[in-house]
Amino acid sequence: MPNRVLAVFLCLFLPLSGPVLAQSTGESGDKALPESRPQIELSFAPVVKQVAPAVVNIFSKRVVRQRAVSPLFNDPFFKRFFGEDFGMLGVPRERIQSSLGSGVIVSPDGLIVTNHHVIQGSDEITVVLADRREFAATLVLDDEQTDLAVLRIDAGASKLPNVEFRDSDDVEVGDLVLAIGNPFGVGQTVTSGIVSATARTQVGISDYSFFIQTDAAINPGNSGGALVTLDGKLLGINTAIFSRGGGSIGIGFAIPANMVRTVVASAVRGGEIVRAWSGLFGQDLSPDLAEGFGLPRPGGVVVSRIYPGGPADRASVRTGDIVLAVDGKQVDDGNSLRFRVATRELGTTAKLDVWRDRQRLSLDFPVVSAPETPPRNETALQGGHPLAGAVVANLSPALAEEMDLPGAWEGVIVTEIARGSTANRLRFKPGDILIAVNDHQATDVAGLAAELTRPATRWRISFSRGGQVRRVEFNR
Length: 476
Hints:
Layout: E1 6-9, E2 12-16, H1 37-40, H2 45-51, E3 55-69, H3 76-82, E4 88-107, E5 111-115, H4 116-119, E6 124-128, E7 134-136, E8 138-143, E9 148-152, E10 176-181, E11 189-200, E12 211-214, E13 226-229, E14 234-243, E15 252-256, H5 257-269, E16 280-284, H6 287-293, E17 301-306, H7 311-314, E18 322-326, E19 329-330, H8 334-342, E20 349-356, E21 359-366, E22 379-380, E23 390-394, H9 397-402, E24 412-417, H10 422-425, E25 433-437, E26 440-441, H11 445-452, E27 458-465, E28 468-475
Antiparallel strand pairs: 1-14, 2-4, 3-4, 3-6, 4-5, 5-9, 6-7, 8-9, 10-11, 10-13, 11-12, 12-15, 13-14, 14-15, 16-17, 17-18, 18-19, 18-20, 20-21, 22-23, 23-24, 24-25, 25-26, 25-27, 27-28
């Protein structure tokens, strides 16, 4: 069987019973190659001494409940006929599962950034500093969409070492970087490399897929660790690698500091994630489309829908426009546009470059969050109909962003499904957008609930899943 290249999260799971190195510059201020042996022999040690004390180890624990399993019944043949629970004996037993990752202190009062997958589902989180002091940590904010989490520890009156953010938009391919973390639990480790690529949007690791790629060696246990530049600033949070066997092959990915900064800012404001929103939906500009629009190269987003009264509408964006850049930063595709907008500061105005009628225009774009209009009105459906056991809500731009459904701004969506319910048995799923029940449009939760109370011997339900419209029929 051929080896498969996999995206591997860098969290390690353990079941339990002189002068700062600077880049030489020429007279013009541009970066230049070293010109002498002393320049080549300069060490990374000053940068490490500055940054390493702010990189911590994170140990998280959670209680896992499981039943004893007889090995005699752990056979696919029996499970095929008797189900996955066949052979489960006795009462549930509990065991402790722990995970090991890294984190970065970003403020002297004990605010720490790590990955969501490091602390996901944890009942207890412990932070160990570089000087071996241990602290119980509280979870301030957990953002699955960006795979980031913010913790806080109380170190009393002492000020903790911390790392400042670097503007990740000004990094260039070829810049030297250091990765600091705790790979495989061996202790704090520093590796060096370069920025291999920026703006990687086709990795598929998180909803906001936009990563810095590096060849600095990072391995399991490095999740949440620091990727730093040679000025001692935080460029990104190490998150995942491509690997054939789980170890580093020189292709690692870090969440850019500009996105990390927005999540930390939300934590400081009170723990609720609020991000800027574009108010438009479109498709990536292909080579064929680029030629038709008179552009020399593919790259950008062709606008197909605009939310009335949203930021794109207020900026006078039109359907058919091609979004090329945000504040001078190039937009290559939809993921890139989403990242560029989400990392702008709320309440400000950005410059949106669009291509219209074979001309490049610069539009003033208000940076605002997605509205929750109408209110979601989450409702658990009950009764003798196929959707019994489903929790539904009114779609809005805010809820669509929360559920990673760009452009799905209206209608009724399934947010939860109760196990063992009718909706569960009929294979409805969270994220299904309900379109119609018995040929009556599902425009809001109240109207859907009313329609489901009508007596019927046959149910016809239309819904959208993954952009595909499906129609199913059920007899009562």
